[in-house]
Amino acid sequence: MKKGMILVLTLLVPCFLLLEIWGVFRYDKLGNEVAKIEQEQSDWIERNKKTILGIAYYSSPGRVDKIVKNDLKLDKTSVSEFLKIEFTDKQE
Q1: Domain boundaries, the chain
Q2: Given Cys at both, which of 19, 31, 35, 77 links 81, Cβ 3.0 to 4.6 Å?
Q3: What is the pTM (predicted TM-score) of this model?
């Protein structure tokens, strides 16, 4: 009986050590995945910030006015130059 108990304990210790080592490897692998995902999230945040700044820059009234005048060479039109079209719903 004693020999059987010693044999079981002798076999259990390496099993527990292997389980511990497997847990450490698994923890390390998950830690690396989390770090990778955090870096990806940080990259997305930076791209979003740059996109928002670009939208703010290109949609500012001063910038739009500058593009209209300098690049597109457009002028303001007077009200008399507008053509008004009205659609009426005639039911007969």
Answers
A1: 2-71
A2: 77
A3: 0.55
